[in-house]
Q: What sequence folds into this?
């Protein structure tokens, strides 16, 4: 599951929208993102959402849906579950969000925790699961598929590809070139397979 990623600022997200099709680099490259600025469930994050006129706009939304009185308890959406709810017309948590609220999260990187490897937390001094950072080769930023509703959003996850599988049994639905429009269009279900997306795997750095 994705519980941490390196978001863009609202200014960077807006600049990226303005630079589309111009060839300009609106986002600066950062070799080692600062963990203090990472997003976690409950964070306010700038996203790209449809503007209703065939374009996109930047909207700042809160990461995570509530469950049983716990805010931000559900911060990932299994695409398999959402598609099943949509197919059967069920009134599940994701039925409306996957049908009407598909959106895009611009990130520099995302993290996954290893199932067995441990590292010492700098904050508590206790052993925690070692985190690995994943980036898209040659990209200053890239997009994750997400769903949103009522000011909240959730990162969509799918089965891991060869890059992520040694670390975790799920991964965010990372979008490659040309795929953001597919995710926002009617053929979005075809994107569940991420085997063709190659990622750079890095040590997650500071363990918090």
A:
């Amino acid at each position: 599951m994705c519980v941490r990623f390196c978001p863009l600022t609202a200014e960077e997200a807006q600049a990226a929208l303005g630079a589309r099709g111009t060839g300009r680099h609106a986002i600066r490259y950062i070799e080692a993102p600062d963990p203090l600025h990472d997003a976690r469930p409950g964070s306010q994050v700038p996203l790209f959402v449809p503007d209703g006129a065939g374009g996109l706009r930047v909207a700042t939304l809160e990461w995570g849906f509530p469950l049983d009185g716990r805010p931000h308890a559900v911060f990932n959406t299994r695409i398999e579950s959402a598609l099943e709810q949509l197919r059967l017309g069920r009134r599940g948590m994701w039925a409306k969000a996957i049908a009407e609220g598909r959106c895009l999260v611009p990130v520099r990187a995302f993290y996954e925790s290893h199932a067995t490897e441990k590292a010492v937390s700098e904050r508590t001094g206790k052993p925690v699961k070692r985190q690995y950072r994943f980036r898209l080769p040659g990209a200053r930023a890239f997009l994750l598929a997400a769903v949103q509703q009522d000011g909240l959003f959730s990162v969509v996850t799918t089965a891991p590809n060869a890059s992520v599988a040694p670390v975790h049994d799920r991964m965010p639905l990372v979008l490659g070139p040309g795929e953001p429009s597919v995710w926002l269009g009617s053929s979005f279900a075809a994107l569940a397979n991420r085997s063709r997306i190659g990622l750079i795997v890095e040590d997650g750095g500071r363990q918090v």
Summary: Helices lie at 10-18, 79-88, 95-100, 179-184.
